[in-house]
């Protein structure tokens, strides 16, 4: 689906690992408000590619929770587990273009290679893949597929890419720059900060980064509104968009709800399922995180009021 000039399409993309909680409602409300403030479409995508973590029935429960809060999508939800063929097409394109390669490293292999370089795993961070398999598997069987983030793409692989694709890839730089609608100018040296990242996992499941980029493009997503915990994913997704010749949406990353331990609220640190028996109270709590004033009217009126405020802030 191509994005028409001036056309807004946004989305909320929960993983069905359990019911929505206070933190996930903040992201849902922000994305819904942004779409309504722009007079655009709001879609829901069930991101269930990580099937071992998915809970049966959680997708239906999430849709019920959203509906109880007045957040109704403008089209039937898309389900990632039904879209594997699209992800395979994208991976095949990346392989042909020289962007992607098979990797035979296990987690222990990566940790050992990084330790040899003096890089130790820090809490809540990922190790930077050192590029062990960029130039071949060295006798290991292929386990996963990774995207190159080194300079190889610009000084060698362009020769094997069709002219139209080469024109896109020729603008790729070492440091990615983008502007977040809330956080402002951002940048990241992807090779130094992340390294070559996984596109298809060793267990055969599709990685989040590839699936979300393919789906955003296929659905014509023009604006992505999500929590700040996902902001660090943006440069990886932009690099994939460049490699695949896809448009880059505008991004806005919202404040997080924190748990009692000061970390992002999640099921792992005690997040409780939304109580949708009192939808206005639930919506007011989410609105407060977004800097919106509490409302005492019915949920529909509260949402309409917040749309007007959001429009004055972000829809200009």
Q: What keyword list fits this structure?
A:
single chain; 316 residues; alpha/beta; three-stranded parallel sheet; three-stranded antiparallel sheet; 11 helices; 15% strand; Glu/Gln-tRNA-synth; aminoacyl-trna synthetase
Can you describe this structure in just a few lines?
It comes from Rhodoferax ferrireducens. This protein has 316 residues and is of the alpha/beta class.
Any overview of this molecule?
There is one protein chain. The protein is an alpha/beta fold and 316 residues long. Helices cover 36% and strands 15% of the residues. The chain is built from 11 helices and 10 strands. It has helices at 22-37, 58-68, 84-97, 107-116, 152-155, 163-169, 190-193, 208-218, 234-244, 279-289, 299-314, and strands at residues 9-12, 41-46, 78-79, 100-103, 144-147, 175-180, 184-189, 197-200, 223-227, 250-254. The strands form 4 sheets. Strands 1-2-3 form a 3-stranded parallel sheet. The radius of gyration is 20 Å and the shape is globular. It starts with 8 loop residues before the first strand and ends with a helix. This is Glutamyl-Q tRNA(Asp) synthetase. Its cofactor is Zn(2+). ATP binds at residue 267.
Beta-strand percent range: 5-15%
**Rg, Å, rounded:** 20 Å
- Order of strands, widest sheet: 1-2-3
Estimate the global geometry from the Cα principal axes: globular
Q: Please report the distance between the alpha carbons of the first and last residues.
A: 25 Å
- The arrangement of helices and strands along the chain is EHEHEHEHEHHEEHEHEHEHH
Helix content: 25-40%
- Give a short account of the largest sheet: 3 strands, parallel
Class from helix and strand fractions: alpha/beta
